[in-house]
């Protein structure tokens, strides 16, 4: 029987290339859509629905966890510059715990696919969660698959989101069009 990996999935387009790569490597992939960072709720629903469409085509089971954005929003607004690390850690923590409960052999995340994420930080947080749970964090730099994933998501007509997820990342994304500085000034 193939080893089972629980893949935290931020959205359908970011899942495509990693899922295909993991399957090619012999993993049985189960997805976990846990993203309390996504705001507003309509955006969350668009991303959830795009993932459902992708999962059907990929023939992959996906677990959909609760959507409770208020604690994340409060934390982000309390520390706008430091918001990303806790956001990633929360999602990796839920993924590791769920993987352990399900009896998976490892866990990982599609955040490793994005060119815009703190890769070293994600890797460190995943390894810390692995140590805490005793379940291996499967690290792979999926960014090399970026063009392939983008092309496939467009070919499949999947909704492609224009910002990371939280309201502050949306403000950062549209700051220039709004004629204002980013919500969080560059470091």
From TrEMBL:
Database matches in InterPro entries: QueH
S-S pairs: 164-166
Protein name: Epoxyqueuosine reductase QueH
Domain of life (superkingdom): Bacteria
Binding, [4Fe-4S] cluster: 10-11, 84, 87
Catalytic activity: epoxyqueuosine(34) in tRNA + AH2 = queuosine(34) in tRNA + A + H2O
Any one GO biological process: tRNA queuosine(34) biosynthetic process
Entry EC number(s): 1.17.99.6
């Amino acid at each position: 029987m193939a080893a089972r990996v629980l893949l935290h999935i931020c959205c359908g387009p970011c899942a495509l290339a990693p899922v295909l790569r993991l399957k090619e490597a012999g993993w049985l992939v189960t997805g976990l859509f846990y993203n309390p960072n996504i705001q507003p709720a309509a955006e969350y629903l668009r991303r959830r629905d795009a993932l459902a469409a992708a999962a059907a085509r990929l023939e992959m089971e996906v677990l959909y966890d609760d959507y409770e954005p208020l604690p994340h929003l409060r934390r982000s607004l309390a520390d706008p510059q430091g918001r990303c690390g806790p956001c990633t850690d929360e999602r990796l923590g839920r993924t590791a715990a769920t993987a352990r409960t399900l009896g998976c052999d490892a866990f990982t995340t599609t955040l490793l696919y994005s060119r815009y994420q703190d890769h070293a930080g994600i890797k460190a947080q995943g390894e810390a969660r692995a140590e805490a749970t005793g379940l291996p964090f499967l690290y792979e730099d999926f960014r090399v698959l970026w063009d392939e994933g983008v092309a496939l998501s467009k070919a499949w007509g999947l909704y492609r989101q224009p910002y990371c997820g939280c309201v502050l990342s949306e403000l950062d994304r549209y700051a220039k069009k709004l004629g204002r500085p980013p919500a969080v000034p560059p470091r």
